Amino acid sequence: MKTLITNLRGRCLFDVTMRNKIDGLILVQSEKFDDLSLEKFVKGGLIKIETEDPLKACAKISEIIKGAKKHGKVYVAYNGDDLGGLLSFAAFKEGVDAIFTCFRETSVRLPIPRLDISDSKLKILEVLEDQNLTAIEIAKKVGVSRAMVYKHLSDLIEMGLVKQSHLLEKYSITKAGRFVTI
Length: 182
Prior knowledge:
The chain folds into 2 domains: 2-110, Hypothetical protein VC1899 like domain (Restriction endonuclease-like) (Rossmann fold, 3-Layer(aba) Sandwich), CATH 3.40.50; 119-181, Orthogonal Bundle (Arc Repressor Mutant, subunit A), CATH 1.10.10. Helices cover 41% and strands 24% of the residues. The chain contains 7 helices and 9 strands; from the N terminus they run E-H-E-E-H-E-H-E-E-H-E-H-H-E-E-H. The longest helix has 16 residues, at 54-69.
């Protein structure tokens, strides 16, 4: 089964759906949208994201993708509205089978980017979710050497996922880093 999770509407939605022989359709919207004219072609539904918090919205989209993956292939198609960027990020984070966007009413398949974060870096982000820590504290919690923690922290800071307090030598996760741990 191929499921499309999307915030697209109109001709572009029809184009993605028909070109890829989609079996299931999940429309993700942040505002009320009742036009489910594709219902006669594919099984599906509408999920309204009712939060103003982008982290919660991204977590909900990730949950939807994970649920759909249990039934087969998952495709994501998005446009530039307020959910578009979150759909795109969640799609590559969760490892969907294809990502599409719309350009001049025609669907365009995009290459799937990969988030290059090692297990150790992910563990560092996870321990920083609840509290700010020094490199020594992080090394103890994650179980890697202090030298390796400094290397990982340097990379995470460069990626904008962690920031360092100048006074206390403590590190904290950024809002962008929280998206990675969803």
